[in-house]
Write a structure and sequence with these properties.
Layout lengths: L2 H23 L8 H12 L16 H11 L4 H27 L1 H13 L1 H6 L6 H20 L5 H17 L3 H15 L6 H29 L9 H8 L13 H6 L1 H5 L2 H8 L4 H18 L1 H17 L11 H25 L6 H17 L6 H5 L2 H21 L3
């Protein structure tokens, strides 16, 4: 079967799978972050985003912008949720097309199937959550970005496509704005090497296009907060919990309601702190939360380090959680993500020993992944924060092991 035919088989199989999952999992109430995304999307249909009553800019407008036309048309909740089936089908197709040129059909098929069937995605895919759209953008970026840098000459089609995918990803999950800025700094330093300068310039063009897409969002957040380059207004809250080292806490995030009502958190003084600071105007609240986070870090750096180590466990398998029983999903993630981590470690060893033979564009994807995961590890994490970059991880891992491992086993230099 040709790559195109197999890709479309994967597309329609994934589409049917997630349509079925949405029908089976349908429920009348909103769970997790669904209410927030639906509220922002509904606000867009009224010509607003934030309001004086809800001034927070917690998440970017990428996903609400997708939902808004359907809400304006009166689409029922199940249709809004079903849109994720299209995004997952695109994510699988783009992943397959990205991996094929570097690792062949079998690896492309395996990485794509894991994208479609990973338990973290299957769990949230049938609901109004951003993972499906994020995966589509991540995979689409990987396909277009590698094509743009693999080409011998400037090809504006893949460059624009990669810039658009990364820009929409950033508007959907604003933490990638930090990834863009950090990666830009690294790439500017790479311009001193003439041999890769052309490809570095193409990569910078992609990042510039993505950042340009986000300028209206940054202008909007500045109008609300007065801060330049404000991607979101919950960084202080995340840092507060990441650095909290009271007895029994390990950097796990808690909601506003938890801080007020959970007995263990009340005993640790979080209710009093929240009442004094959380309901201040957004800018003052952020400053107070960040100030407290810095105080926590100075007071107990070893405890914060322990929280950081625990956070890697949460990013990979969802463990440990403070003051909550562990979920059965943790065992599933250990069974799935455990072998992936081991294979990834093997790939890193092989890549290190053969780094000069790796395509430059894959090294850049590895850099972006490293920046994202490194930055995410500093904040309270969940397994679904990690799975969104699986197409990048899977592509680099497949490319390294499909070729580099043979080199290692044959003893070639």
């Amino acid at each position: 079967m040709s790559s195109r035919a197999l890709g479309f088989v994967l597309f329609f199989a994934t589409l049917l799978l997630y349509v079925a999952a949405t029908l089976v999992a349908d429920r009348p109430d909103l769970i997790w972050d669904e209410a927030r995304y639906k509220w922002f999307a509904t606000s867009l249909t009224h010509g607003t985003y934030c309001t004086p009553e809800k001034p927070d800019v917690i998440n970017g407008p990428g996903y609400p912008l997708v939902l808004a036309p359907l809400i304006a048309a009166g689409a029922p909740l199940i249709v809004l949720r079903g849109l994720n089936a299209v995004f997952m089908a695109l994510a699988v197709l783009f992943t397959f097309r990205a991996v094929w040129p570097y690792a062949g059909k079998k690896w492309a098929l395996g990485i794509s199937l894991l994208t479609a069937l990973h338990p973290s995605v299957l769990r949230v895919g049938p609901y109004l959550m951003t993972e499906a759209l994020s995966l589509a953008c991540i995979a689409g970026f990987a396909w277009a970005f590698t094509a743009a840098l693999r080409s011998e000459r400037w090809s504006w089609g893949p460059i624009v496509a990669a810039g658009f995918a990364l820009g929409w990803l950033t508007l959907t999950r604003v933490f990638f704005g930090n990834v863009i800025m950090a990666a830009t700094c690294f790439l500017v330093l790479m311009l001193m090497w003439k041999g890769i300068r052309g490809r570095v310039l193409r990569a910078l063009a992609v990042l510039a296009l993505a950042f340009t897409m986000c300028v209206p969002w940054l202008a909007y957040t500045k109008s609300w907060t007065g801060e330049t380059l404000c991607w979101s207004t919950n960084a202080g809250e995340l840092l507060y919990w990441a650095t909290s080292t009271h007895e029994g806490e390990n950097g796990h995030w808690f909601s506003e309601e938890d801080s007020q009502n959970k007995p263990e958190l009340v005993a640790n003084g979080h209710r009093d702190f929240y009442k004094a600071n959380y309901y201040l105007p957004v800018k003052e609240r952020e400053a107070a939360l960040k100030k407290k986070a810095m105080e926590n870090l100075r007071a107990n750096p070893k405890g914060v380090l322990k929280n950081w180590i625990c956070n890697w466990g949460r990013l990979i398998v969802g463990f440990p959680r403070s003051y909550y029983p562990e979920e059965l999903l943790m065992l599933v993630l250990v069974a799935v993500n455990g072998p992936i981590v081991l294979v990834l470690l093997l790939a890193l060893v092989v890549a290190w020993r053969n780094c000069r033979k790796l395509p430059f564009e894959l090294l850049l994807l590895g850099l972006l992944t490293f920046i994202y995961l490194g930055g995410t590890s500093l904040l309270p994490g969940l397994p679904r924060y990690t799975i969104v970059v699986w197409p990048w991880i899977g592509l680099v891992m497949a490319a390294v092991l499909s070729k580099g491992l043979r080199i290692e086993l044959n003893g070639e230099k």
